[in-house]
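Lab channel / #folding
Pinned by the channel admin:
"Please post every new chain as: sequence first, then the C-alpha cells as a reply. Keep commentary short and put observations after the output so the thread stays searchable."

First post following the new format, from NK:
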Amino acid sequence: MDFDRVNEKIRVLIKLGITKPSIGVAVKAMPVKIADYNRHAKRHGVTLEEAQRFVDTAVIMLYQENGERYMYLSLDGSAIILVENNNCICSYGKNKFDPSIKAILEIIKNERE
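Reply from TO:
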C-alpha cells in the first residue's frame, strides 16, 4: 500500500472537515500485544480479546499525538494503544465507526483494489 497516497487522501478529508488533524498519520500496522486494558477502554463494550483482534487484523495504523499512541484500525473495530507501555486506552467495534473512520476505511479499500 502506498502510504504517501493514503495520507494525501486523509489530508483531503481534513480539508473537507470530514476528519480532524488529530486522526494522525497512516503507517503500516506493527504487531503489538496489549499489556493492559483499562476502564476507559472497556466502556464501549469491547473485550480485551476483541481489542487484540482489532490490532492483529488492522488494515492501517494511525500514528497519533506525536507518536505517543497508535490507533489500530481493522474492518471490525479499532484500538488505541499507548506506545510507552502497550496499554489499550480505547477500543470500539465497527458499529461505532463515525463518518471519519468510514471515509478512511473507504480510502484503504480503494487502495487495496
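NK: The chain is about 35% helix and 25% strand.
TO: also worth noting, The CA atoms of residues 44 and 79 lie 11 Å apart.
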